[in-house]
Amino acid sequence: MTYVVTDNCIRCKYTDCVEVCPVDCFYEGENMLVIHPDECIDCGVCEPECPAEAIKPDTESGLDKWLKINAEYASVWPNITARKDAPADAKDMDGVPDKFETLFSPKPGGGD
């Protein structure tokens, strides 16, 4: 089992989860985070820290797409281990539908 970041992280990009991760398995894209599935130890401390509720256990149904996205981008985006401020419009972006299709950026973020 691993945890995965889903589409509600896009353009919300809260990093509270990063701060509590004991194994530093988060990677930063321009407008979202992902979890490296081979580094995640399934502790679950990140899940309740996400204000956008974008982090899910991979045991939930319908997450195959997100498992692949997390694995793909964790291998190319930089590691992030410290909390950063969320985007100014993060609250407005929470719950916006179809974020992956309309707002996702494959560009890397700044990392640490």
TrEMBL record:
Function description: Ferredoxins are iron-sulfur proteins that transfer electrons in a wide variety of metabolic reactions.
InterPro entries on file: 4Fe4S_Fe-S-bd, 4Fe4S_Fe_S_CS, 7Fe_ferredoxin, Fd_C, FdxA, RnfB_subfamily
Keywords: 3Fe-4S, 4Fe-4S, Electron transport, Iron, Iron-sulfur, Metal-binding, Repeat, Transport
Name of the protein described by the UniProt record: Ferredoxin
Gene that this polypeptide is encoded by: fdxA
Domain 4Fe-4S ferredoxin-type: 1-30, 31-60
GO terms of molecular function: 3 iron, 4 sulfur cluster binding; 4 iron, 4 sulfur cluster binding; electron transfer activity; metal ion binding
UniProt KW 4Fe-4S keyword: yes
Pfam families: DUF3470 (PF11953), Fer4 (PF00037)
NCBIfam families: FdxA_Protbact (NF045490)
PROSITE patterns to which the protein is assigned, alphabetical: 4FE4S_FER_1, 4FE4S_FER_2
Keyword Electron transport: yes
